Prior knowledge:
Structural class: alpha/beta
Helix content: 40-55%
Radius of gyration: 20 Å
Number of strands: 11
Oligomer: single chain
Number of helices: 12
Shape: globular
Amino acid sequence: MKASLFCTSxxxxxxxxxxxxxxxxxxxxxxxxxxQTTLEQFALADQVGFDWVSVAEHHFAPFSLNPNPMVMxxxxxxxxxxxxxxxxxPDIPILNPLRVAEEFAMLDTLTGGxxxxxxxxxxxxxxxxxxxxxxxSRARFAEALEIIRMAWTEKQPFGWExxxxxxxxxxxxxxxxxxxxxxxxxxxxxxxxxxxxxKNKLGIGFAFTTLPRAVxxxxxxxxxxxxHGWEPEPDHVIYRLGVHVAATDxxxxxxxxxxMRQRRVGLSMANAAVEKxxxxxxxxxxxxDEQRGRLLSRGQLxxxxxxxxxxxxxxxxxxxxxxxxxxxxxxxxxxxxxAAQLGDKTLRSIELLGTEVLPRMHAM
Length: 364
C-alpha cells in the first residue's frame, strides 16, 4: 500500500461560517502562515517517505485556501523532491480543459514525471464560482476529459468542435513526461461515475464517504471494468480519510479532543462528510449551522473509526485500522488528511506515519 498526505491549506484563524464565506475577518498574515504551514507539512511528508502528496480545488471558503491546485502544485515541485504530486483534482467542468491539459503537462515536466491527474466534477456549490450550470456537469466532464487526453497524446495539431468547447487548433508544448500521459483518477461514488470510469479505464477515488459505501461502489466499478475487458489493479483505487497518530491511543484521542476545543468544527475530514450530508438535506444559513451542530454532537469517534472515516491511535493501532481497509476495499493508496492542526503534535503525527506506519503499509 501507498500513503498520500492531503492538505487543504485550511485558514488557521477565526472565520464566519456558511458558503460563500464573507471576508470580514480575513487576515493576510494568517493566510500566509496557513499556506507556509501546508508547504512545511508537505516537505516533511516527503522527507519521511510518503509516496504521494495531494491537493484539491475549492472556492470561496476558509476550509481550503486553494482555488487553483495547479499553483499549489507548482510550489510543491520546489519542496517535494521524491513523492508524486497528485491533483485530486481540478474540477474540469468549470475550467478550460485545454488550459488544464497544458498545466498538467508543465507540472509533469517540472517533476520529471511525478504528477497524478485526478480529474473531478466537483461539488454542486463549486459551479456558482464561474457560473456554470451544474446540470451540465456530467456531459461537460466527459467532453473535457476527451479533450485533455487527446491534447496529451495527439502530436499533430487538431481542432475541436464540441457541444461545450471549441478550439481552432491544439498542439500543446510542453508535453507530459509520462507516456502516454499521467495516470488519471476520477470519483466513482455513483453508479453512473463507476460505469464511466470502467468504460474509459480510469482509476477511481473516494472521499467524504464511509468504508462500506466505498466497498459497494468499488465492487461495482470492478465488475463493470471486467465487462469492458480489463482487470483493475489495487493501485487504481484511492481512499481518503482523516488521520492522527501519537505515541499511544490515549494521547491520540486527547490530541483530537484538544483540537475540537480549539476549533468548533473539528475532525475536518469526518466533519466534511457530515457537512455534505447536511447540504444534501437542504439546510442553509442558520438552520444549516444548527443542524450541523446537532449532527456533530451525535457523531462519536468510535463510529467514525468503524465507518473508516478516520485513523486514530498509536502506530500499532493505526496499522490494524489500515489492514481492515485494505482487506475490505483493496485500495492501494490511502489519501490521509490531517484530522487536526495542533502544531508540533501534527508534525509528530506525520513523522510517526512515515517512520512507523508507512514501512508496514508498503509490505501490505
